Amino acid sequence: MTNELSPAELSQRLESMESRLAYQEHWLDTLDQAVAQQERRLEKLEQLSALMRERLREQHQALQAGDSQGSFRPEDDIPPHY
Predict the structure, then answer these.
(1) Is the dihedral of CA 75, 71, 69, 81 positive or negative?
(2) Considering just the CA atoms, what is the radius of gyration of the chain in Å?
(3) Between these two residues, 64 and 76, which has the higher pLDDT value?
């Protein structure tokens, strides 16, 4: 018994390997696109988070400045609930 393959069998194995390689390349391209899209979304979320932190900091500073002045504004008064 020999392990030699016929030309038809070699051709079939080569075709099978080429097919699997093309399939893997397709999935690598798909995964690459998904990673790039997630990177863009992450950058946007980081920008939004930084903006929200800055606004929160500004509001906190404004609140502290208002408290230190001791001024009362009618719009700050919470109406009673029935």
Answers:
(1) negative
(2) 33
(3) 64
